[in-house]
Amino acid sequence: MARVSPGRLARTYGQALFAACNVEQFDSISAQLKELQRMFRESSQISEALKSRTVSSDQKREFVEEMANRLGLGQEVMNLLRLLAEGGRFALFDQMIICFEDAVREFRHILSVEVIVARSLSEEEERLLEDRLRSVVNPALAITIRVDQDILGGLLIRSGDSVFDSSLKTRLRRLEDSLAAPA
Prior knowledge:
By secondary structure, the chain is an alpha+beta fold. Helices cover 60% and strands 13% of the residues. It folds into 2 domains: 6-106, Orthogonal Bundle (Peroxidase, domain 1), CATH 1.10.520.20; 111-180, no CATH class. Helix 7 links the parallel strand 1 and strand 2 (141-147).
């Protein structure tokens, strides 16, 4: 029997949660997931216990039900937590959130764009960059800006399979390749 990749499993859970929600719930569900994600990051004990193979599925399920009730989580999120607990798949939680949010953005026709820069940008620089991208590409963008000093300078913009690379690192590599090529 073929093994299913963790990415595919996370996508299946994320899409199942998306399908279980109605349009009015998307923002609320996303906020609940983010709150849980923050809580799991702040308490490595909770996260490790939920991922542990030594803690029984029943114990995990009881814990997530108690936690969900205490936090006032919706039925959809509670059901997801139960499924993850019973299946021993809490390691997929962060990736599942990304898949759920991707499904919501796709439904809303929002294009996800990752911008990689060499240094942290000021709020003004971020706003100008975002405004410029929205004016050139599409006003409905979900923009994530990430710093990676390895690119040395310039920008790397990624959306799906498309990449616009104007990084200094790539420019230097191209220059090096052209100088090394026989005339």
